[in-house]
């Protein structure tokens, strides 16, 4: 299924930065990878706390008659607070950006299940909340819609991590992570447990991205070893990369397989929450903004770049485009790596030896096994309960209201073939 034309993602100007310069871009992401560098705040000062409190309070209306009237009242009470927001520190601004993104998405869809008319509607948003959200998005160089970063990676809590404090991704563990601000409610006696379903969906991506930090570290070590022509270091780094890819893919598979997000509920109640499907306010005739999409997982894109997987397929192009929804340091790393994505593979082929080749192909095989699993599991979610449903826009621009399963399979098959083609195989001669 071809994608519509996507705006080009800027890559480094020629000549590209060398590998040493590229390695410096890993430093801001070293502790937490693509998760925020401090644990998300759970409270905000002054009038902004009312916005955090509103999220769970709106949940019954979101599954009932709609949230728009309540959000307009909240907006009137808030007033213009953009100057106050500029006085907040970084962590507070990020928490405020996250909650305004949630509230804008709630207003955008009004209620779930989403009615078909919402997909063509361009609503007039509450003016003060919308202005605040657009200001914060621009200040953080992010699109004015919810993203993985704002809706998920800034919206969790952990019993083991104090809010606002630095941490290491290895400290983000299953059983301790929960959604911070849940916009679904679970009425008494309702076995659907929509609040629990959304909580699990948030946990899945936060925990997967936490495991992606080890992918980032091992990839940086492999890149440095290739640059220095250090064969033992390359072997060690590639074995670490294999273990990290395996842990990351196991994390998402475990959550989705054993702690089941119900596919029928996901398609009707959870998935529309994250889409946006409206053009940017300053480009009303431009392509629609996507919203939060699994394409924005940073750990998998790092693995692709480390293993030399191209981005030429339809899904590869969509992955590259998804970087516009990542933070500037994340975007800078991935874009600067593009000209160097064959460095590690070339070293493995030229002088890496059989141990490096084995570790490289093992990492590539695990990444591709995850893609095969994702193809099958994603098809189940898209199929849902077997009935036709409207769906929010995703990173692959599947049209709302049309069958999605085969189109998704076609996209994944292209990406699986593109990934598998990078296998290096055993050395022609023994070491």
Automatic annotation (TrEMBL):
Source organism per UniProt: Deinococcus indicus
InterPro entries (UniProt xref): Indolamine_dOase, Trp/Indoleamine_2_3_dOase-like
Organismal lineage: Bacteria, Thermotogati, Deinococcota, Deinococci, Deinococcales
Record-given protein name: Indoleamine 2,3-dioxygenase
Pfam families: IDO
Gene3D superfamilies associated with the record: 1.20.58.480
UniProt KW keywords: Iron, Metal-binding
One GO process term, biological-process aspect: L-tryptophan catabolic process to kynurenine
A GO cellular component entry from the record: cytoplasm
Leader sequence segment: none
Domain of life: Bacteria
GO-annotated molecular function: heme binding; indoleamine 2,3-dioxygenase activity; metal ion binding
């Amino acid at each position: 299924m071809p994608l519509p034309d996507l705006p080009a993602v800027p890559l480094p100007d020629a000549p590209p930065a060398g590998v040493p310069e590229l390695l410096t871009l890993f430093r801001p992401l070293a502790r937490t990878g693509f998760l925020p560098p401090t644990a998300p705040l759970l409270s905000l000062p002054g009038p902004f706390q009312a916005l955090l409190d509103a999220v769970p309070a709106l949940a019954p209306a979101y599954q009932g008659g709609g949230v728009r009237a309540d959000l307009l009242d909240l907006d009137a009470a808030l007033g213009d607070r953009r100057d106050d927001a500029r006085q907040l520190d970084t962590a507070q601004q990020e928490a405020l950006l996250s909650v305004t993104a949630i509230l804008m998405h709630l207003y955008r869809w009004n209620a779930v299940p989403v009615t078909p008319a919402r997909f063509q509607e361009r609503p007039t948003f509450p003016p003060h909340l919308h202005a605040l959200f657009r200001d914060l998005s621009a200040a953080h160089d992010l699109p004015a819609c919810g993203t993985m970063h704002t809706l998920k990676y800034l919206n969790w809590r952990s019993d083991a991590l104090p809010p606002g404090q630095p941490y290491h991704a290895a400290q983000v563990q299953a059983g301790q992570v929960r959604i911070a601000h849940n916009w679904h409610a679970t009425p008494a006696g309702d076995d659907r447990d929509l609040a629990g379903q959304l909580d699990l969906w948030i946990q899945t991506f936060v925990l997967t991205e936490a495991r992606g930090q080890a992918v980032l570290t091992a990839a940086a070590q492999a890149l440095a070893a290739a640059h220095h022509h250090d064969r033992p270091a390359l072997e060690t780094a590639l074995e670490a990369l294999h273990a990290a890819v395996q842990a990351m893919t196991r994390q998402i598979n475990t959550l989705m397989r054993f702690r089941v997000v119900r596919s029928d509920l996901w398609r009707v109640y959870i998935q529309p929450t994250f889409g946006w499907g409206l053009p940017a306010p300053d480009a009303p005739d431009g392509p629609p903004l996507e919203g939060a999409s699994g394409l924005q997982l940073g750990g998998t894109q790092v693995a692709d770049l480390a293993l030399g997987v191209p981005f030429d397929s339809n899904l590869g192009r969509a992955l590259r485009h998804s970087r516009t929804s990542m933070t500037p340091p994340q975007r800078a790393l991935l874009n600067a790596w593009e000209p160097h994505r064959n460095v590690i593979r070339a070293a493995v082929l030229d002088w890496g030896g059989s141990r490096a080749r084995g570790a490289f192909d093992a990492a590539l095989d695990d990444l591709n096994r995850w893609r095969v699993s994702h193809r099958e599991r994603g098809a189940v979610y898209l199929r849902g309960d077997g009935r036709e449903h409207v769906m929010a826009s995703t990173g692959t621009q599947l049209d709302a209201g049309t069958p999605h399963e085969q189109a998704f399979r076609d996209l994944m098959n292209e990406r699986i073939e593109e990934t598998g083609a990078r296998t290096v195989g055993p050395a022609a001669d023994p070491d």
